[in-house]
Amino acid sequence: MVRILELEEYAAKNNIPIMMKDGIEFLLDFIKDNEVTSILEIGSAIGYSAIRMALLNKNIRVTTIERDLERYNEAVKNIHDFNLEEQITIINDDAFNVELNQKFDLIFIDAAKSQYIKFFEKFKANLNCNGYIVSDNLNFHGLTKVDLKDLSRNVRGLVRKLNSYIEFLETNTEFSTTFYEIGDGVSVSKRKEDEMKKNAFTLIELLGVIVILAAVMLIAFPPILNQIQKSQGGVDEATKTIIINAAKLFVDQNDDEFKTVNGNIYCKSFDDLITSGLLTKGMISGSEDALDDKLIKISYNNGYVYEIVNTADCTSNTN
């Protein structure tokens, strides 16, 4: 804790903006409460917030971007002093030049205030489906709530930009945002349910393609598959894949039946999939004997798990 205080004192002495104490505590609690493990930070400064976030949990990974070389070098030194090089990746570049392929549970925007909208629009593609975008300094030391006529020209322009960002969040059709009067003003944005469903529909389409391709393989290579089945004395992997993918589609299409409650277990027959049109008898041709007296066990524990089990080994349990 002493080293954290030293960072705070260094920032104050050198006029380096870091998150206010109640603001950073809010952010850390939010990360813990929502089990966030991957974070993208826009604006490292001296690495203060990235270090605080990484210290929460050894499983947390932070990617942080800082364009100012002097601050970047100070952040690298501080990250090294805390032995967090394996958890924190820091990039010295303008954020608009950085292209990332990975997805993050949380994106933290705390950089040039005039560019917040552009940061949001650029990096929202790097957000996990259920992720959050957190923005700091929305009050800008209370200046976003005063009459613009009382401000200098330069400050007035910056405040206008921040007010435009706040309006952008309030009227955004893709994300819903909650504003908190904590620290210097914090917002938390999350994709709206209908937008997440659109993304889920894309995944359903992808699974459908996989099912079709697997079916084509079964039709094209039945002698090979039959031989594999005979040699293994069970259900071949290709047939298992088709059944499991069909079960995933079944869950997606009947989400009102399947509740995301840990410990829930659902037992479904192959006829359920056939009746729904997601599976045909031709797809499992040659495996009928191996599938006799078997069910598809669908269990939920922070995510769905799909298994083909004996009927006696599947007992439905729903809450």
- Compressed to H and E, one letter per element, the order equals HHEHEHEEHEHEEHHHEHHEE
Report strand order across the widest sheet.
3-2-1-4-5-7-6
Q: Kindly report the average pLDDT value.
A: 85
Spatial shape: elongated
Strand content: 15-25%
Summarize the structure.
By secondary structure, the protein is an alpha/beta fold. Helices cover 43% and strands 19% of the residues.
Structural topology:
Elements: H1 2-13, H2 21-33, E1 38-42, H3 48-54, E2 61-66, H4 69-81, E3 88-92, E4 104-109, H5 116-123, E5 127-135, H6 153-170, E6 175-180, E7 186-191, H7 193-220, H8 222-232, H9 237-253, E8 265-268, H10 270-275, H11 288-291, E9 294-300, E10 304-310
Parallel strand pairs: 1-2, 1-4, 2-3, 4-5
Antiparallel strand pairs: 5-7, 6-7, 8-9, 9-10
Tags for this model:
three-stranded antiparallel beta sheet, alpha/beta, elongated, seven-stranded mixed beta sheet, 319 residues, 10 strands
Note down, in words, how this protein is organized.
By secondary structure, the protein is an alpha/beta fold. The protein is built from 11 helices and 10 strands. The chain has helices at residues 2-13, 21-33, 48-54, 69-81, 116-123, 153-170, 193-220, 222-232, 237-253, 270-275, 288-291; strands at 38-42, 61-66, 88-92, 104-109, 127-135, 175-180, 186-191, 265-268, 294-300, 304-310. The strands form 2 sheets. The protein has a 7-stranded mixed sheet with strand order 3-2-1-4-5-7-6, sandwiched between helices. Strands 8-9-10 form a 3-stranded antiparallel sheet. Strand 6 and strand 7 form a beta hairpin. The longest helix is centred in the middle third of the chain and has 28 residues, at 193-220.
